[in-house]
Every structure is written in structure tokens, then in C-alpha cells.
Amino acid sequence: TNAHVILEQPAKVIQGTVIGGSTPEAGVVEPAVVPWVLSGKSPEALRSQAAKLLASVEAELDRPLVDVGSSLVAARSLFEHRAVVLATDADTAARALAALAVGEPDPAAVSGPARTGRSAALFSGQGSQRLGMGREL
Hints:
It is a single chain. By secondary structure, the protein is of the alpha+beta class. It is 28% helix and 18% strand. A hairpin with an 8-residue loop joins strand 1 (17-19) and strand 2 (28-30). It has a domain at 31-113: Alpha-Beta Plaits (2-Layer Sandwich), CATH 3.30.70.3290. It has a 3-stranded antiparallel sheet. The radius of gyration is 20 Å and the shape is flat. Helix 1 (43-59) packs antiparallel against helix 3 (90-101).
């Protein structure tokens, strides 16, 4: 089946918070939800990371959520035990981090061990564009 897409100009208003100015053109638009990824070698280490991040967030409540989220992904190693905080604002993030720090559930946080699995390559299309193309990988 073929598909057709018509692209138009994006909406003028983007849901989120504008950083660095009063209009979207003057600053960067922060998304409505920013994932904060934490990890540790053990459940205790993960709780410790959550407690340390909570202290940092409480010390600087005006820090942009995107800055925290991108720093956590770019500058940290990923270990077996992981958690993701869905930060919509500093208060929600702090509440979720406090819950993670003591091992309790929170609606804005998900945690558990990372699962390892096999990778798969998928060649989408309407049939075999070239017979046996996956064997060359």
C-alpha cells in the first residue's frame, strides 16, 4: 500500500515553556515533558543517584528541565538498574526523585532492571526490493 503525506506549516503555538525570551522566536521552547534517565549498578546505587539529583534540583529550582535531562543522558553511564522521571516541572520531578530515593512508586517515575535482547534489522516495503539483502549484513 502506498502512502501520501501532506506537510504544512507547524502551528504558531507550541505547548511548552519558552526559555530565554517572551516569544518562541526569541528563545528555545522547552517540551511539556522531559525524560530524566538515572541508572545504578544496584537498586541501592539507583536510589542514591535519585537522592543526589534531588538535592541538586532543590538547590537550583530555576534550572531548565531540558538542561538536566540532556546532561543525564550525555554525561552518565548506563548501568543495569534504571529509572526515568517524566519531568513536567521542578515540583513533579522533585516528588518523583524523592519517591525513587526511598524506593517508593510515583506516577511520574518508572524504574526496573534493564533488559538485554537481540537486535533486529527491519526492511520495510512492499516486498523484497532485492532478494537476500539482509544476508549481506
